[in-house]
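Re-run requested by the PI after the first attempt was lost when the workstation crashed. Everything re-entered from the original request form. Ligand of interest: calcium ion.
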Amino acid sequence: MYRIKRDQIVYEMSALNKPVLHVEEGATVIFETCDCFEDQIKSADTQFEALDWNRINPATGPVYVENAEPGDVLEVNIKQIKIAEQGVMLTGPQLGMLGDRLTQNVIRQIPIRNNKAVYNDRVEIPLKPMIGVIGTAPMGDAVACGTPGEHGGNMDCTIIGEGTILYLPVNVPGALLAMGDLHAVMGDGEVSVCGLEVSGEVTVTISVIKDRQLPVPFAKTASSVYVISSAKTLDEAVLNATRKLVGLLTTLTNHRVNDYDAVNLLSLTGNLQICQVVDPLKTVRFELKSAYLDQLGITI
Ligand code: CA
Ligand code: ZN
């Protein structure tokens, strides 16, 4: 079992990042993570102007995974997410979907008690911890941790939580996996610009898949599979996600399932869902229940 401290962070995903840890395939690693403000908000009095915006969206890592070669798929099995007892939110002018109406920046601390976020004296929200930022080194230029993409990154996808297996591309030797930006809970869309931002720690096991191409980023839960896609617009992200999932169904059946079969099946049973609409690229996911993969004879 390996552990990476929360001060071992990067602000961009890059082939040039120096690994903080080398692990063998199948290793279990605990990533300690700061919140997306690098834990700068210590009290309710913290002023927005006092925040150092160069220290936003840190990701812990990266980890070099032995035997991960470009073209492979990295399998990240999310075993456990532990979160702090208090979370923080921030919104204001130019931020999120209401940024044109908000006149000042407001920071809000929200206590977490008995597995619930205590929103105010009337509203309590059951927790659903998730990882906002998780990715490998991208192909080509570095990508800021606040931006999502084909390499993963700031996907802010609510299903990336405990029990989910996430598949990411290996673009460089060792893959260079990093993660951060935990949310105690978040709604699909993330409309204010943030989830309930918390520090914490994530336990994952990491494997390398050599013999199977998957439309990454790709996720599997107990009941469903998801392709995840990020693009400048939601329209574009939806188009990409649909093409990727159709491609998976046709390729893995050697075209026994053709484009008509695949798109019709998705039209009847697939669920397009929004991950987030507030980051530099928008992110969607397309869910297909695993039961249909089973019926088609597809194993992932
Ligand atoms: Ca985020
Ligand atoms: Zn976040």
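Saved to the shared folder this time. Residues 234-252 form the longest helix (19 residues).
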